[in-house]
Structure formats: structure tokens, C-alpha cells
Design brief:
Two copies of one chain form a homodimer. Chain A is built from 25 helices and 31 strands. By secondary structure, chain A is an alpha/beta fold. In chain A, a hairpin with a 6-residue loop joins strand 8 and strand 9 (about 145-150).
Chain lengths: ~700, ~700
């Protein structure tokens, strides 16, 4: 139904502008103006009870007075009368609404009520609505040509579709895009997203043949679970590039260290983007740079880049950024270099970067580009051009796009020192070559394209379903809930882990030193003992832990001493945990925190200081596929330690992958649990698995 | 002498253009054209044997034919006749030369010879020369107005002076600067730097009242020691912002791990920049963004930033980048917020970021800026403006600069969606407000300014001189040299460390197991033993190390077993190192590698995997002041581990600082040594010092 309504919104045969105005400066004027001046291909009906015509077009007092059917109504009247106008639209049989009018949920209490009524009207009349509080919609298709916004700059036609949660930013972006010759297929300012959501548009644009690249400016996710599902499908077919504001929430939390506080929602957003293949741009500038590249050029097949330049310095700077972004400088075949030697001046440096020196002509560029693009060792080429005094930059631009069109390899360009409306620049962009003022921008955009190549090539994996007896696990959580929020008792935590098949270190909870020694004999030496008690959270600081005890006597004497020490400090002692001492292996951490928006967020990292000071952790959103789990493990910087360095045996990464998959299932099942820390988990050598040594489950206040 | 010559180059009363041409497209034409069209205030004498006039100005066959004195000659004739022309200049008494002509050292063999002769001519005639192979020089001072380049765009007058090692880049940058309204005081394309170097210009521009900010594009350092000395002085007075290409050399080495290979010269450059206060820009775009900020606005006194915006989204993006860059969102005083409430619309959000919403007028901006700039909790303000349809952007721009001028706080602006030549943009820049297209750029530029604030505030420290008996150390190195390049014997390394007062773990070198046990008794238990032999480099892998041996019997049996194992594998065994086993403490590494350009480069980091996989290391260029040493230690990400976490005692950072200072002196003294690794050094608790446990000194092939 929404998709049907979206059709009425983006490709209406007739539009009513409710609140069309004769007064310049009014939104209802600007929208009429934009529709007419940009030659909307259907029929526009201004609705204004106080005018007989607007912009020379016959006006009607209400929508109901329009003699013909109306597909779409653009509502610009004040909030006070908006509901009435919308109801008239419903009675008229209007199918699509774009509500520009502000004064709804964004102003709080009475506005939110008004928005609920608005939504009711849409539902009861079967209307689909964008907004309210938005800046309008655009479709540049030649059979539609609809600019139903009040933006001052009409967009060029292109293959990018752009949705924005900030109307102001949307207008600014249309402005900027025009100035750098970037065109759009569709544009939608989402406003309050009362009905039509970003997810709806993603689905619609995924199916839209006019849209090749989808851009999003996001402030928050309405339905993150749907977003994950939909985006995962869409990115298989089309690139989605997103800017999400709100990074600094993570920034402000960077000082804090444990799982809970590491899980700011921006990290969750990052994890969502990584798992769904949505490309995150770090700034609006990057959004554009990437959009231009994706919409104009094919993806590079690999990371090997050739740089052709007429000036050494800028060439090096381009290479610097390419390498920093993880791309490679292609090694040119000797035959490629030889073929250039035939015509290049002797001073030219023909190894990659190919430096044609300042005397380079348009012909030189064409021949050099032909040569490097023909080289099978080259996946992409960046042409760097510093216009000297005398060459004609348009001729050089023409050579570059001409050579590029002969091959289906990726070509980007830098026209250093020129503004984006200089003739060479325009020549390039209009002929399909993404062009940038600075070499670093071109390198970054190419790297973004290559990331998509990699994403498309990576195996998807699948979500395994482990056989867990929930009739055993549910009572544990229910009982714990009964005791209120806070930390779940260790024994319960242990039973949950075991139910999900997570391997724990053998352990027993006992009351006193003597029982500890007996338990140790059952478990097998060496053992660890840990004092248990409500105040004993930071056990190491309190010396409430003793490691590597090798016989019963040692266990008994350590436990006795520990009890004496803690009691002397007035700390209550409930007993001891006696646990298998896991020798060797590496400490890792598996964690879960519940993000306000995204729900559970899984963390993996090497234990101890790696997590605390180096933030060497990976995040994932459950359910994790096996490939997601593997990628999380491999993505930490200290992953080589798990592979084994300096003659050490490799760790059991496969068992760890399995653990993450089981953990993923567990966190989705355990609804009331807000935080889990399995820390440390000791991963042993290949084939030997891992042991969860300590586990902390925290129930949320709502549980 | 050079400074006198530079005066002739930058402020000549008369200029001879040797090779002035009547033909458009020739360099000798472009330079004449630029001098005349841009109204050079002195007298120009074209020199051309085949023309009676050039550009309407009487021409002379040679310089010697000019009837008046000539301060500066611009040489554009072909390389073949350049020496002859330069000699004529010398005989004429010309004081300054700018040699545009190419075909010198940059083309290799014969060119290098020609360059040597050129330099001889300059020296013998007392001439100062910029170039050869350069693009010329500019001075925009109204009494000079000299554009002696062949760049197509004359620069605006401003307070930035810019030197570039790439002429092409220089021209492109002049072009771009003009398009964003950034002006220059002086410009110099350095070319081959045969005589006048970047260092000479740094000294001259430090003293130049017209120059407020110095920009450099650097490909390599001619004399890095001088650069360090000079830059350190200059940055106390004026900001130096530099782009250095060649970052990717470090990138390509990033996979390798030990001290030697971590010391790529780009890391050295980074260390130089950090120690001298030169601000490194990561791209040409950043160079400009920073230059505009530094040249137009005062430095922020602190990190607290207010953001005033008319649109939420861009405001958040600005804050995101501010926080990511280490700045803080200022907390506005309640009175500040109240004062805005008096006039702001109810929908406006008046906590920082101050969101005036889309209806914001020019007056609103002025009042809001006034309010936040008057707040003592605000050090700087970024005004974010998204031009809506109807407001006049020039009025808003005027409000912003008007409010900014009333206080001496830092103000930057973002005019989102506008191009850099839009009227609001121009209004701002011309009135001293650095303005950017994107909010992230403004945030980054402000952060660069704040880094300078911090640099100027930090104590300089001093280089200590430790009393070392070089009559003891020199023979050690001399003898080692006699044995050829490669690793210095452990005993010698140990003696060197001790001579410099570096504290080593007590140790003895012995021949066999029995002697090891005896040595251990002298040293005191527990001890470590390490097998010594030419092939025993990776001792852990070879099991050639035994730790924590607690009595003589253990030492003897371990040593015997070790000897048997190694001999069985055919590895030669020279004996054992018996060493105090240092318990507790943290492993750190002190290293030195000799950079081709900068000479010794000192590395500090936490030991083990922190260095290898996390690259958590700091670099410094000796001589290190005590403050340099302290900063190196504090700058690693794992520094909190040294301060003590989770109830651990803090490490002896002061002793470590002393160690780095001594190490710095040692590496400067030991000329032939190419690499030193003190790894591990175990740093103990506060007051307990550290022990160097293993040391590797490597003599270079040239030694």
C-alpha cells in the first residue's frame, strides 16, 4: 500500500498545492513556482480560497472544488487548518500527501496530538503521506519533472536518489550538488516520518530503475530491525551511502571502558552499517565525493591503482592517501612502461605514479591513460591534472574521459587548483568522470568504491540455530527477575551459559575453606579460588582471588587467609568459587550491551588492557551469521595474537566463532538482560576450545 | 648575506627579465605580463637580444646593456645559455636571482654539473638565488606589488606567506586561494633549492612584519637539523602549517614491526613536526582550511566551543567533529541562555548547540553570537548557517562578523550549501571570518588552532647534559667497528649502557652450567639464564631462555638441558648470560633507528605486542628535552598502564624520563651505531627505577 502511495507521491499525474500563494517569500508561492518553472509534466491545481489564480493558474477554494482527479496534494497551510485540509483531500480521493506544514510532533504535546490525528486521517482515507514538517519531494524523470520543494535551486537530472531527515540540510545539499554538477533521480525530505519512513523509501528506490545510488542523511533510525533487514537486501543491488550525525555521543563516552559504556548507539550504528553494507560517510563532503564516484563510474575490480599526473607533488599526495586508505599502487607491466617510453619526454617518470611532467599535452594524457588502463595489473586509475598556464584544460579533460570510455575500469580525476565550475571540471563530470579539487578526495572516493567491491565479494554466511532447551533457561531468568534488577547470581549465569552450549571452566561454589579443598579435588588441580560476596566486585584489588593452587593444602590455607583478610576489612563473605585454573591460552572478552535504539549490541575483543585502553574491540548486531562472527574476530587489530606469533600455537578461532554465534542466539533470547560480560574467556590452542572463566549478567530495571 | 639577498629578491627596486618574450605562451612572456599587469612598483627591464621592446617596454640585448642598477634578475632563458646569462648578471652587480630555467639537478648527471657551476657563479659574484627550476616569487606589499611568476592568477594581498617545493602545486594553490578569497604576503617556489633553502625563508619570514602565517609544501628536508632549530624558534612567534608528501612510505612499512622498520622517514617528519610545533596538515584542503583560520582569527584561549545554527542536523555534525577532534562543547551559563530566551522563538533550542531554527534572522544571529561570545565559559564559536529560501545571506554574514568583531574570541563560520564565491561567503572572509562549505571543515580548522594554543602553553623543557666518560665509551665502539658491521657483543652493549648511567639488570656472561650456577649466587636469586651464540637471535622460539630460577641446582640443570638441546640441533653455544630476574614491573621498549634524512630517531613504547601489533609507540628526535621525554611517554595510548590501573602501583615514570634523556645523549654520541633496541626495559614501581634486561646495538655498514 505504501509503495502504491509512493507512486502517487513521486509520479503524480496531477497535484493540488493546498495553500498555494501569490506572495513571493511564502512557501506556498515557492512550491507553485518550482512546479511550474521546472515544467512539471502533469497538471497543477492551486488551492487558495482567497485567489482566483496563482502564478497564472486557475485556483480553487478547496481541493473538493477541483473538477478533475488529484493524485497528490502538497499541504502548506498553517497547522491550525491543516487537518481540515487533509480531510478534504481524503474525501477528494487524493492518494498521496506531502505535508510541508510544521507544528506537529516536533513542537511536543499538542503537536504530537495533532500528528496522531493527521495519521488517523491518512489511514482512514487510504492516503500515503510524506512529512509533516518536511521540505518536499522531487522527481527529475523527464515524464514527471516534479520539483515540489521550496528549495531555490532545481536539481539536475541524475541517477542518485537522496532522502534526508533534515530539510535544511537537504536544501543546502541540492544547492551544493548543483554547483558541482551532480544530478538526482529523486529527492525526499522525510520530515517527522509520521507515516512514510526511510525504510519505505529504501524499498521503493531499490526497485526504481532510475535510481542507481541511494544517499541518506540520518539522525536516528525509526525501526532499526527493519532497516537492517531491508538495507542488507538493497545493498546487494545498489550502493547506499549514509551520513549519520551523532557520532560524538560515542566520543564523549570514549573515556569509559567496560562493555556497557562502550556500547554507545553510534557504535551500534557503525556495526549496523558494517553488517548491512551501507557505506558510512564521515562528513557531508565525503557523502558527495562518494556519491559522485558511485553514480558515475563502475566499481574497481580490485585494489590496484595507477596514478597519471603532470606534477610530482600532487601525484605523491594522491598515492599517500591511496595507501593510507588501504589501496595499492599498481605495478605496471614492463610492456606498459615501454609503450609509454615511445612518446613520453625523457624526463617523464613512467613507473607508477606516471609523471608526465608539466609539459604534458592532452594527447599525452590520452596515451598514458590508454596504456595504464590496458594493463591487466591495473584495476583503476586516478588522473591528476595541475593545469599549467598554457594548456587548454578542456582538451585535457576530453582526453581523460575519452580514454576512460574505452575500458570498463574505474577512472577518477583531480583538477587541482580549479574551482568546481571551471570548464575542465564540468567537461569531466558531464562525461562521467568524477572529479575533485584535491587528490586526497579522489583517493578516498575510490577507496569507498573498493570497500563496496569487497563487501559484494564477501560471503554472506548464515545464522545457525542452536538447539537450546528454553524450558530450562526461562525459569532461571524469571526467578532472577523476581529478585529485581541488578547482577544475576553467578550460579545462574553459569547455568545459562551451559544451556547455550558455551564452554565454561569447571567450577563449584562452596561455603568454606574445607569445602573449597574438597571441591578442588573433584575439579582437579590446579585451581583458582575467588571469594564471593555482595561487595566483592573488583576482586583483584581486594586480593579476593588466588590463582594456580596446586594441592588441597594450598587451597585451604589461601581460603582461610582470604576469609580472615576480608572479614577484618568488614566485607561480607558468602563463600568461595573454586574453579579449574585454565593454563595457557589468551584472554578474550565477549560482551553484550542493550542499545536504546538497536537493542542488543555484541562486543568482542582481546581481554584486559586491550579493551580498556586501546579500544581494540569489534561490535556486531545479532543475529550474527557465522561470517559476521568471523569478521568480528578478524577485525580487531590484535587478531595476529590469536593466529599465533613468534612460534606460539594458533588459538582456536573456530571455537570462538561458534561461541559468538551461540552468544548471539543467547542475547536475543534473554529479553530482560541488559548487559553481559564474559570476561575473561580463555581461548586455548586449535582444537582445544575455550573456557568462560568469569561471567556477569545484569538485569535491567524494566525486567 | 642570504637575508640581504632575499631582500633583493622580494623587494627589488628594479628587475631584469632575462629571456623576456613577445610570444604569448612563453614563460618569458607570462612573467613580463604578470609584472606589468599587476603593477610592479619598481622598474622592469626586459632582456632579449632579438627584440627592441617587450610588452611595450624597451628591451636590452643583455643585462649589461641596462643603463641603471638592477636588483633582481629573473632568468627564463634555456639551460644551455643560462650560465652565460647568470654570469652577465654577476658582472652587472645584480644581487638577487630567480632562476626559472629547468634542466639542472632534476635531470641528473649533466644537469647536476650545470647546477654546480651555477652555484659557483652565484657565490663568486655574491648573488643570492632562488631556484633553478622554479615558478617564481611574489610579494604583494603595496610598495612592491611584484608577481614574478608565470601563474595565471595574481594572488590577493593577505598575511600568509607560502613556500612550495612543487612549482605546479604552488600555481594550483594560488589559483585555488584566489577562488576562496585567501590572500598572500609572499610566495616562493623553491625549485631545486640550490642555494636559498626553506630554512632561509623560514628565518626571513619569521622577521617579516607582513607575514603572520607561514605555509609550506615540503617533499623533503634539505638540512633537517637546521630545520628543527629554526622551526622551533619560528613557531614561538608565528604558526607554520606544513603539508609533507610521502606519508605512504610509512604506510607501506606498517606491516613490519621492530624498531628499525617502524622508523620510516615520515614518522621522523611527524616527530619533527610535533617537537617543533609545526602544524602538519594532512591534505592540501586542510592546509588551506587551517591557513584561513590562522590568518584571520585569534587563537582560542581554550577548548570550549559554542555552536550557533539555524538547522539541527548540520549543528550536530559540527559538534560531532569538534568532539572527535578533542574540543569540548561549551556549557553555557544559565544567564546566557536566559538572555536568548527573551527574543528567541519558543521552538529554538538554546542549550549549546544553539539552534535558532530555520526562521532565524540576521538579527537573531547577531544577538545569539553576542550572547555566547560574552559567556566566560566560551572560548570560541562556530556559526553554522544553512541559507533558507528567503533570508538575505549577506545580512546574516554581516551580523556574524559584526558580533565577532566586538569580542576577541575565535569565530569561524560554515555557510552550508553555498559555493565559495557566494555573496555571504565573500562578505565573511573579507571581514575576517574564516568560512567553510562544510561544518566538519570549520571544526577541524578550529581544532588545529587549539592545538597551537596548547603548543604555546606547554613548557619547553631543557636538554640535560649527563657526565659521561667518553674515553671509556669510544674505544668500545672503535673496537666493535674493527670487527665490522652487525650486532655489537652483548658485553660491550652492556658497558655502553652503564657508561651512560642507564640501569641494567645485574648480569654475568659465563661459559658453562657450573659457572652459571656460581654467577647466579653472586647476582642473587631468582635469575634468568639465556644461551649465547651467533644463531641464537630469537631466543624464546629456540627455548634458549629460562626464567625465574630460584637456586643453584635449578640453574645448573636448566643450563645443562639447554646446552644439550641446542647442540643437538646443531646450534653453536658460546656460553650463558646469567641475569637478575626482575620481578613485577612493566615491559617497555626504548629504541633508536637512524633515518636517512633526520639521523637518529628515538622510539618509546610499551613492550611486546603493544609495539608489534598496536603500534602504540612515540617517536622523538634527539636531543630530547626533559619535556620531550615526558611527552613521548605520556603520548602512548597505553600510558594509563604506567600510571597504574585497578589498584596497581604506579610505575617509575620519572626514572623512565631520565632513561630517555640519557638514551638521547647516547644515540647522538654513538655515531656508527645504526640501531639500538633496549627491549625489554622493565620499569618498576615509583622510586624503584627500571632495569634494561636486553639490549641490541647494531653497527651500520658504513661504520
Amino acid at each position: 500500500m505504501v509503495s502504491d502511495g509512493l507512486d502517487a507521491i513521486f509520479s503524480p499525474r496531477s497535484i493540488a498545492v493546498v495553500g498555494a500563494s501569490r506572495h513571493r517569500g511564502k512557501v506556498g508561492y515557492a512550491i507553485m513556482h518550482n512546479l511550474i518553472v521546472n515544467e512539471y509534466q502533469g497538471t497543477v491545481y492551486p488551492v487558495n480560497p482567497n485567489a482566483t489564480s496563482v502564478h497564472g493558474v486557475r485556483a480553487y477554494p478547496t481541493v473538493l472544488d477541483i473538477p478533475d482527479p488529484v493524485d497528490l496534494a502538497i499541504v502548506t497551510v498553517p497547522a491550525e487548518v491543516a487537518l481540515e485540509a487533509v480531510e478534504a483531500c481524503g474525501r477528494k480521493g487524493v492518494r498521496g500527501l506531502v505535508v510541508i506544514t510544521a507544528g506537529f510532533r516536533e513542537i511536543g504535546g499538542p503537536g504530537a496530538e495533532r500528528e496522531a490525528k493527521l495519521l488517523d486521517l491518512c489511514r482512514s482515507h487510504g492516503m500515503t503521506m510524506v512529512g509533516p514538517n518536511c521540505m518536499g519531494v522531487i522527481n527529475t524523470h523527464p515524464e514527471v519533472r516534479m520539483d515540489a520543494t521550496f528549495a531555490p535551486t532545481p536539481p539536475l537530472r541524475g541517477t542518485i536518489s537522496f532522502m534526508t531527515q533534515s530539510g535544511a540540510l537537504g536544501v543546502a545539499i541540492l544547492d551544493h550538488a548543483r554547483s558541482i554538477n551532480v544530478g538526482f533521480a529523486k529527492f525526499c525530505s522525510l520530515g517527522n516520518k509520521a507515516q512514510v519512513s526511510g525504510n519505505d523509501l529504501l524499498e521503493a528506490w531499490a526497485a526504481d530503475p532510475e535510481t542507481k545510488t541511494i544517499l541518506m542523511y540520518i539522525e536516528n533510525f525509526g525501526n532499526p530491525k527493519n532497516f537492517v533487514r531491508i538495507a542488507r537486501e538493497v545493498t546487494k543491488r545498489k550502493p547506499i551511502i549514509a551520513v549519520k550525525s551523532g557520532r560524538s555521543e560515542a566520543g564523549s563516552r570514549a573515556a569509559v571502558s567496560h562493555t556497557g559504556s562502550l556500547g554507545g548507539s553510534d557504535l551500534a550504528a557503525d556495526a549496523v552499517f558494517a553488517q548491512t553494507g551501507v557505506q558510512r560517510a564521515n562528513s557531508i563532503e565525503e557523502l558527495f565525493d562518494d556519491a559522485m564516484a558511485f553514480s558515475l563510474q563502475p566499481l574497481p575490480r580490485g585494489p590496484r591503482v595507477a596514478v597519471v599526473t603532470d606534477a610530482g607533488g600532487p601525484g605523491i599526495m594522491c598515492v599517500d592517501e591511496l595507501v593510507a586508505q588501504g589501496l595499492q599502487l599498481a605495478e605496471l607491466a614492463p610492456s606498459t612502461v615501454d609503450s609509454m617510453r615511445a612518446w613520453a619526454p625523457p624526463e617523464a617518470a613512467l613507473a607508477n605514479p606516471v609523471d608526465l611532467i608539466a609539459s604534458a599535452t592532452a594527447e599525452d594524457y590520452e596515451r598514458a591513460m590508454d596504456a595504464v588502463l590496458a594493463d591487466p595489473g591495473v584495476d583503476a586509475c586516478i588522473a591528476v591534472y595541475v593545469p599549467p598556464v598554457v594548456t587548454d584544460e578542456v582538451l585535457v579533460a576530453r582526453s581523460i574521459w575519452t580514454a576512460a570510455k574505452r575500458r570498463d575500469k574505474t577512472v577518477l580525476c583531480t583538477f587541482l587548483g580549479r574551482s568546481e565550475d571551471s570548464p575542465g571540471f564540468v567537461e569531466l563530470v558531464q562525461n562521467g568522470i568524477p572529479s575533485y579539487l584535491f587528490p586526497e578526495s579522489a583517493a578516498r572516493a575510490l577507496a569507498a568504491m573498493h570497500r563496496r567491491t569487497m563487501y559484494l565479494a564477501r560471503p554472506e554466511g548464515s545464522v545457525k540455530r542452536f538447539d537450546v532447551d528454553r524450558s530450562r533457561t526461562e525459569p532461571i531468568v524469571t526467578e532472577a527477575r523476581g529478585r529485581g534488577p541488578g547482577r544475576v547470581a553467578d550460579a545462574d549465569a553459569w547455568r545459562l551459559l551451559e544451556a547455550y552450549g558455551l564452554r565454561t571452566a569447571r567450577a563449584e561454589v562452596v561455603r568454606d575453606a574445607k569445602a573449597a579443598a574438597n571441591a578442588a579435588s573433584r575439579i582437579g588441580f590446579p585451581v583458582v579460588i575467588k571469594a564471593l560476596g555482595p561487595d566483592l566486585v573488583h576482586k583483584t584489588e581486594l586480593k579476593a582471588v588466588a590463582l594456580d593452587l596446586r594441592d588441597g593444602a594450598a587451597v585451604r590455607s589461601e581460603a582461610t587467609a582470604m576469609a580472615r583478610r576480608l572479614t577484618a576489612r568488614g566485607l561480607a563473605l558468602d563463600g568461595f568459587l573454586v574453579q579449574e585454573f585454565v593454563r595457557g591460552g589468551k584472554e578474550v572478552i565477549l560482551g553484550m550491551t542493550r542499545d536504546k535504539v538497536f537493542g542488543p549490541l555484541i562486543l568482542f575483543g582481546l581481554g584486559g588492557v586491550y579493551v580498556e585502553y586501546l579500544k581494540d574491540v569489534a561490535f556486531g548486531i545479532p543475529p550474527l551469521t557465522d561470517e559476521d562472527a568471523r569478521r568480528m574476530i578478524r577485525s580487531i587489530r590484535t587478531y595476529p595474537l590469536l593466529e599465533g606469533v613468534r612460534g606460539e600455537a594458533p588459538s582456536d578461532v573456530e571455537a570462538l566463532t561458534d561461541a559468538l554465534e551461540r552468544f548471539s542466539q543467547m542475547v536475543l533470547d534473554l529479553d530482560g538482560v541488559d548487559e553481559i560480560d564474559l570476561n575473561p574467556v580463555i581461548v586455548l590452542g586449535k582444537g582445544e576450545g575455550y573456557r568462560v572463566v568469569d561471567a556477569r549478567f545484569v538485569l535491567g530495571p524494566s525486567a
